[in-house]
Amino acid sequence: MHTDFFAWLEQHKGREYDLHNDHINPAFVKMLKTIGFDKGYVRGEGAYLWDADGNKYLDLLTGWGVFALGRNHPKVRAILQQLLTRDLPNLVRMDCSLLSGLVAEMLTKHTSENLSRVYFCNSGTETIETALKFSRCATGRQGVVYCDHAFHGLTTGSLSLNGSDFFRSRFGDLMPGAQMVPFNDLEALEKALSTKQAAAFVIEPVQGKTCEVVADGYLAEAQSLCRKYGTLLVVDEVQCGLGRTGKWFAYQHWPEVEPDIVCVAKALSGGYVPVGAVITRPRIMDCVFDSMERCVVHSNTFGQNDMAMAAALASLYVIEEDKLVENAAIVGERTIKRLREISRGCPFVSEVRGKGLMFGIDFARPKENFKLKMAWDMLHKLNFGVFGQMVVIPLLQKHRILTQVAGFHIEVIKFLPPMTVSQEDMDWFLNAMEEVLTDTQRFPGAAWDTVTGLAKRTIRM
Ligand SMILES: Cc1ncc(COP(=O)(O)O)c(C=O)c1O
Predict the structure, then answer these.
(1) Which pLDDT tens digit goes with each residue over 425-458?
(2) CA 5 from centroid of its chain's CA atoms
(3) Quick one: which H or E segment has residue 376?
(4) Rg (CA), the chain
(5) Residue 297: domain span
(6) What is the spatial order of strands in the sheet that 48-50 belongs to?
(7) Which CATH number goes with the domain that contains 87?
(8) Are 283 and 341 within one domain?
C-alpha cells in the first residue's frame, strides 16, 4: 500500500459495487441498483452528501442516526486528530483511563442523581445485551417484557425483543422468557408484569421503526407498574437519546420518569468511532460487580478505548455548546407541524408522528376516493410495503434528499435529520414532500408506473 493512502484508494475508484457484490452482500447491491440508490457518494459534510458529479444531497438518514452532529463535525475531528499525535497508553486494561471517567461524568450530568454509573461498550445492541444481563442479575429473574414493533438490535438477546417476525424468522430459538405487549397498552403491561417473572421491561420512548411516541402518562404509569411488580424499567435511547427529540433523553419529556437503566449509542460516536453506554443506578451495577473477583464479570475488549471516548467527549461538548438539543426541539416541532399540514391534502397519509428531529409519515389505504383505493389495492396485491418507495425514490432522484422506508412490511418513512439541521434545509425537505405527495395522487401517472414496475421486479428478485 502507498504511503499516500488517498492516491492508493484512487486507483480502486469505481470498484465499490463489484467488491460488495463479490465479497460483502450481493443482495444489498441488487437492492440499491434496483431502486437507483447506487449513487457512489464521494463526500459528506454536515447535513450533506455529494456524488462524483458534484450533486449535493440532503441526508435525512444520517447513517441511521449516527451523524446526529452532521457528518465530519470539525470540533470532533480536531479532538481525534490531536489524540492521534500522542502515544497514549490506550486500553491498558489493568488501569483506569481518565478519558472514560470524564465521559461517564459528563453523561451522568444530564441524567438524574440516581443514574450515576456507566458501562461502556461498542454498539447499540451491546447496550441492550448489557441491560438484559444487568436486569437478570439484579432481580434474579429471567423474563423480559418488550413492545410490539420494537427494535433493539439484531444480536441474539436483543433480537429476542424484536417486535417484528421478519427480523426473527429463520434464526432459530431465541432467548426464553421474552414476552411482547402492545405499545402504549398499560393493561397488557400489567398483565405481563403481574406474574413477577420479568427482570426488565424494555421500551423505546419513540420507536425507531414506527416513530410511535409513548402516550403522555404512559411511561410514568409503566414505571409504577414496574416498581409494583419488581421489574426494572429499561429505556432504549440508542436512537432517540442525546438530544434528538428535543430533550437530552427522550424519557425526560415526562418529568416523573426515572428509569433504572438507560441505553445510548449512535450520536455518542460523533459519527466517527462506534460506542455505546449503559447508564444505571449504583445498586444495579453493584449486584453485577459485587466483589473484586467479579469486577470484570461483564466486560468487552474495546469498550472505553481512547478514540471512542474522545469522540464521545467531543460529541457531548458539541451537543452542549452548539445548543443542539434546543435546535432539535425548535426545528423539529416546526417541521412536524408543517409536514402535518402538507399531509392533510394527501389521502394516503394516515399519520405524521414523532418528536423533535425523529419523525415519520405513515401511509394507509385511502378512506375515500375509489380510484386511489383501487390503485393502493393493486399495488399491495403485487407487493406489500412498496408504496413508501413512491415517496423515497423521487425524494432522492428528483429532490436529492436521502431517506429510507423504515422497515419491512410497514408503510412508514422515518426522517432522522442531523441535530444541526437548519430551518432552510427543512424547507428544502418540506417543499419536496409537498410535490411528492401530490404526485402520489396522480393515478395513472409516472410515480405509480415506477413503483408498480418495482413491485413486479422485487417479486422476481
Ligand atoms: C432503538 C435502537 N436500539 C438498538 C439499536 C441497535 O444498535 P446497533 O445497530 O448499534 O447495534 C438500534 C439500531 O438502530 C436502535 O434503533
Answers:
(1) 999 999 999 999 999 999 999 889 888 888 887 7
(2) 32
(3) helix 370-382
(4) 23
(5) 75-321
(6) 43-45, 48-50, 56-59, 401-402
(7) 3.40.640.10
(8) no
Nearest CA to ligand 1 atom 10: 124
- Segment 234-289, tens digit of pLDDT: 999 999 999 999 999 999 999 999 999 999 999 999 999 999 999 999 999 999 99
Question: How far apart are the CA of 371 and the centre of ligand 1, in A?
Answer: 39
Residue nearest to ligand 1 atom 13, measured at CA: 153
Q: Are 210 and 412 in contact (CB under 8 A)?
A: yes
| In the predicted structure, residue 461 carries a pLDDT above the cut 50 | no
* Alpha carbon nearest to ligand 1 atom 8, residue: 124
Last residue of a domain, one of 295, 321, 347: 321
How far, in Å, from the CA of 242 to the mean position of ligand 1?
14
pLDDT reported for residue 455: 83
Query: Are 85 and 117 part of one and the same domain?
Result: yes
Position 2 scores a pLDDT of 63
CA of 154 to the centre of ligand 1 (A): 8
pLDDT of the residue at 331:
98
51 neighbors 40 (Cβ within 8 angstroms):
yes
Q: Is residue 46 part of a domain?
A: no
**How many independent structural domains does the chain possess?**
2
- Which of 130, 167, 266, 278 to probe ligand 1 with, by most ligand atoms within 8 A of CB? 266
Taking the centre of ligand 1 as the mean of its atom positions, its distance from the CA of residue 151, in whole angstroms, is 7
Helices vs strands, H then E, count in the chain: 18, 15
Instruction: Give the distance (Å) from ligand 1 centre to CA of residue 159.
Output: 11
Phi, psi of 350 (to 5 degrees): -95, -30
For 142-158, how does the pLDDT look when each residue is reduced to its tens digit (9 = 90+)? Answer: 999 999 999 999 999 99
Q: Distance, CA 57 to ligand 1 centroid (Å)?
A: 25
The pTM of this model reads: 0.97
Same domain, 80 and 92: yes
Tell how far the Cα of 199 is from the centroid of ligand 1, in angstroms: 21
Residue 119, classed as helix, strand or coil, is: strand
> Is residue 4 in a domain?
no
Q: Whose CA is nearest to atom 2 of ligand 1?
A: 152
If asked whether residues 117 and 130 sit together in one domain, one would say yes
Q: Which residues line ligand 1 (CB under 6 A)?
A: 64, 123-125, 128, 151-153, 204, 208, 236, 238-239, 265
* Whether residues 92 and 197 fall in one domain: yes
Q: Give me the helices (H) in 355-422, please.
A: 370-382, 389-397
Number of C-alpha atoms within 13 angstroms, CB side, residue 200? 26
